[in-house]
Specification:
Elements: E1 12-16, E2 22-25, E3 39-41
Bound molecules: zinc ion.
């Protein structure tokens, strides 16, 4: 049986302010890989 759940210490979802590119990473990417704009952490609304 698999226990699939999000671990806040593993990966977070970051979204580009400018172009909307989504990056899933354990660490903040800092800037968008596509356009270089700032990324924001989308967080995990699901508990
Ligand atoms: Zn971008």
């Amino acid at each position: 049986m698999k226990d699939v759940k999000l671990d806040p210490n593993e990966e977070s979802t970051y979204e580009c302010f400018d172009c909307g590119t989504v990056v899933v990473s354990a660490t903040a990417p800092g800037s968008c890989p596509s356009c270089g704009a700032d990324m924001r952490n989308r967080g995990t609304p699901l508990e």
